[in-house]
Design a protein that fits this description.
Pfam families: Cu_amine_oxidN1 (PF07833), NAGPA (PF09992)
Radius of gyration: 37 Å
Mean pLDDT: 89
Protein name: Exopolysaccharide biosynthesis protein
Number of strands: 82
InterPro entries: Cu_amine_oxidase-like_N, Mao_N_sf, NAGPA
Low-confidence stretches: 1-47
Largest sheet: 6 strands, mixed
Number of helices: 7
Shape: globular
Structural class: mainly beta
Amino acid sequence: MVVRREEMDGGTKLARFAVDKGKKLILVSLAGLIWIQPIVSLGPLGAASSIAHAAGEQTTKLDVQDITSGAKLIKYQYTTTRSGKQVKVLADVIEVDLSNPYVEMNVMTGKGGQLTTRQSVQGMAKDTGAVAGVNGDFFATGGQGVAMGAAVTNGTLMTSPAQLQGMYAFAVKNDGTPLIDRFGFTGTVYAEDGSTFDLAGINQESYTTEPDKAFSHVNKMFIYTSAWKSEERPKASSTTPTEVLVQGGIIQQISIKSAIPGAVPEDGYILRAHGTAADYIANHFAVGQKVDTSYQLVSQTSGQALDPSELKMMIGGHTLLVDQGQPSSFTRSTTSISGSSAVARTAVGYSQDGKKAYIITAEKNSNSTGMTLVELQKFMTSVGVWRGMNLDGGGSTTMVTRPLAETEASLAFTTSNGGAGQRAVANGLGVYTTAPQGTLKGLKISGTSTLLIGATTSYTLKGYDTYYNPIDTSGIQATWKSDNGNVTWTGSQFKAVKAGSSVITAVSGDAMNTLKVTVLGGSDIDGLTPDTTYGSLDAGTTLPVTVKAKLKNGNTVEVPAESVKWEFTGMKAAVKDGVLTVQSVNPGAKVAYATPKYDGYSGTPIVLSASSEQIWESFENVSYQVGFTGLPADVTGSAAIVQGTGDRASSKVLKLDYDLTGGTGNKFAYAQINGTAGRDIPEGATAMAIDVLGDSSLNWLRAEFSDVDGKSVYVDLIRPLDFNGWKTINIDLSGYSIKQPAKLKRLYLVNLEEGQDERALSGSVSFDNIRFTAPASSDGDTGLPSAKVQMIIGQKTMTVNGQKQGLDVAPLVKNGTTYVPIKYILDSFGGSALWNSTAKKITVTRGTTVMELTVNKKEFMMNGSMKTATVAPIVTGGRTLVPLRLVSEQLGIDVKWEQKTKSITLES
């Protein structure tokens, strides 16, 4: 066979198509599982149960979920032995009741129901309103995206089966009877002169036939309908086409040895011919003559003809997997679909009584390892499949199902593509509901299941009816309650009162639903960090104090303002609506701290200190690069340091010339600072001042900063620029949450598209004397004491400015690293340490430095930013000892080591 193949997990795979409708149908997905916590559902169907089969193999039902009337999702765990080891695989089965009048199966085809338009299974389900679906037939992944097998939708033959050996198809007849068989295609074209010619197929890609290995379109005639989207019919066929356009049974156009331009019209079809077929057209067709066609499917096992109109749906696949309730011999080679490898798989089958259809997937993801085809066969027989076949698998395997009370289908499991998401496929097998609207049967509570103390939240209700379809709940009145005092109902919302778990309940008539919620306590927190790091220590200063909590499960959440308690040192202050206001500064205090607390957990303090304005750049002695960038590229100009004019004639300035006449849309002219890298601003900067030479252009001026995480922060300087001459612009940075240390990357001019005709498109602005207000950096400015401290390794005494005093624990050397007791260092050099015994964390404050150290962890927080040390703090004798190098590098204390005497001298 000459079919295009693509790589699967562990091998190669054929590409594929999909089908529709039924009585009871089950789609099954399987994937290898490493470990899973069993889910036990209530009721006979939901109860966990196991089926033992073959030595060392077991199928365990984990959960049953209703999708709609007549369709349910059943989750299984399949246990088998592989390479001498027990392996557990997750499998998902959609069971469809083919006798239920309110459920159908049908083929989902690409985008808009047209061939050659691949789409994800979820996308097709959304477009067609399917409540569940899986990927369908194989297809040539390097081709146009058309199924290899037959596809019938609502009695219409979308594609005929390719001439390939051993390929099976699944179908459901109009009376709800399922069947799986091998099918061929037969058809005839009738000319007005009474002559006929054989049709080779309908809407087929080019391929190599089996077993003769011939080109599919050579000397053949095909029909292409409006279901074929592409204007190439088909591509890469190795043939020159002759095409005939037929509308209303009349020949409208004949194109000899060339394609008719454009797509197939909706009210007609195109006959596409080559070689002897093209000669037939030349000899027997003429524009204006009548032409007719007929075609049908033919069973290759019984020879019986099957009119597509007798079918609700049909979808093609690959090998037969199950026959008479037993694993069957493979009907074609499975090498190209990695048959012996454990990969994600998709299959379809039906029960012995023909009343159930099973759509099956085997998962391959972080929870499951996929299945071999032999394993898939055994699993299928264990869940009741009487006759079944393989659909496309590997990266194509996808299942979507609609959860109760939801309006759209979503992924039932993570595909083997992982982060790559869902593969776009040629077609899929969908499940549909035709039920009328019923009465309210059940409720579903939607909302957060994790709360923080003091927070209030609302929950919404979704409902489903007696047919398990979503129902409008906007007019439903429900009664709400909580089972304990951890969460209380306020009459309109729930409020988290204290740490612990609660079950909230909503009741409306006979419908009820519950949701378990957890109120997080201090023991659940692994970090509490304000977005604001620094502030000015002046009465009247205001700072936004949004706080984020890092949870022990790795998630990060914003803590509601009402959930945070604040402790103030060195000042009197208050926090209201997420804003801190300094009311007064304690006498003599040059540094103050605002420490967030949550249920006994103390977070990283905000440092407020006496600040001063520092000239950051006067442009007199610049050693870094300054450059111009325009956006879009048609924007031109220059940025350079030049001699000033007028009253700035004796100094240098940064001049930005711009021409925005080129390009369209929003326009920007950038003066880059230090190339694209930017330049560090003072640590803890809370305000910025800059002198600007305006040009009354009415454009905007902005500054772009880059914070410690590389995130850009945009600060408006002037909006609009409505003056000439020099003017000092003052900017409060405290409200921008610039996570420091940070850089100033560029100053730039903004000209938005809206109202562009009211602003100048060319001009020149200049900048000078950029200043930042930031905390004083010297010990004298922050009020920190100077001292000289001497310690000796192994001795529980130290001298401070010549005075001896005792230590609870001696300095020590461990694995080549010197450790010192942090408490005594802070006592001598100023600062404090707060110990959190639960988190094994110590928060050190000294001047404008705040460090958070965790015992046995190299990662530490420095002024709100994560850093990594070479070694971690330790605990000895009930005291925290920190690496000596960490003290010298981060706390601004000089350290000297005397090897001969094993003594340490610290000075500041």
